[in-house]
Amino acid sequence: MTVPCVRVPASAGEETRQALVDVGVVDHGHDIVADDGVLYIPVTDSAAVPAEYELVDHDVPSRRQQRTPADLLGSEPSYERLGDIVILDEDDPERARTIADAVMESDVRAETVVNRASKIQGELRVRDWEVLVGQNTETLHREYGYEFLLDISSVYFSPRLATERHRVVEQVEAGEHVFDMFAGVGPFAVPFADAGADVVAADLNEVAVEYLRQNAERNGVSDRLTAIHGDVTEVGREHENWATRIVMNLPHSADEFLDTAVAVAGDDCVIHYYDIQHEDDPFGPGERAIRAAAEPEYEVTVVNERVVRSYAPHEYNVCLDVRLSRRPE
């Protein structure tokens, strides 16, 4: 039967499927079809599909009925998947355990189910988890053709940012010098290196840096990626005037490291600056902070302003892509 589908490369299939699930348009009555490296993901409402995706009509078979957690619960629970871990965010412990049982009884592929037990906390940006099913909090996550091994109990990782990471990665060209200031397990740094850039990736979390090195090896980019455990301010002093591109993915406090970013920037450098701000002025505080740190040494041009996602009521996680061009002396 011919139905509307989103067409994507197979390497981006899981991330795209999850993004479409998040907006509620995946057609669960038909199978996802693979054809010559391309996936066709059936959708229920073409008008509601985000504009970034390609829509086509394609012949896909009706899907055999699979049991979902919603089938067993009678309502749609909220959860996300990271590798073979299902992550819940429930305040009611009893409901969390009920959902966990439904996940395991359903056709969802999962080895572990956890519930968030704290907010992100501390310099290392980790949170506490209540393990409801299983024991292993280490998992292998696949994103746009790359593999990332990580342990959610000791590192920060958000699968919801996959599309945003891919947007930035697509801008990187071979030969660039990229400085990832808060690299984690490498979801920016590894694809940057695969694109042909020379990458320096720093993080204060020693466990994350060890995973980063493993992930660089796993994805075949160790020769172009230098992973450094340490304070990014100290690391930056060793790479002044070096970078053509800098990623500052540390919302809430990236502004504290803008002096380091400016010192690392070469004559022409793009900064991807992540921030969390109120909806009344989501981009202004970040732009003003960047200008205060970079001017008058650099001409500052805001190339792009992007709302990445809603973070809290009336607050957005945003990104400013900003070009710094050094003014002649």
In short:
This protein is of the alpha/beta class and 329 residues long.
Overview of this protein structure:
The protein has helices spanning 13-22, 69-73, 93-105, 162-169, 189-194, 206-218, 232-237, 258-264, 284-294; strands at residues 2-9, 33-35, 38-42, 54-59, 79-82, 85-88, 112-116, 129-133, 138-143, 146-151, 177-180, 198-203, 225-229, 243-248, 265-278, 298-312, 315-326. It starts with a strand and ends with a strand. It has a seven-stranded mixed β-sheet with strand order 13-12-11-14-15-17-16. A four-stranded antiparallel β-sheet has the order 2-3-1-4, covered by helices on one side. The chain has a four-stranded mixed β-sheet with strand order 5-6-7-8, covered by helices on one side. β12 (198-203), α6 (206-218) and β13 form a beta-alpha-beta unit. The longest helix has 13 residues, at 93-105. It folds into three domains: 2-59, Alpha-Beta Plaits; 69-136, GMP Synthetase, Chain A, domain 3 (2-Layer Sandwich); 158-326, Vaccinia Virus protein VP39 (Rossmann fold). The protein is built from nine helices and 17 strands. It has 329 residues and is an alpha/beta fold. The chain is globular.
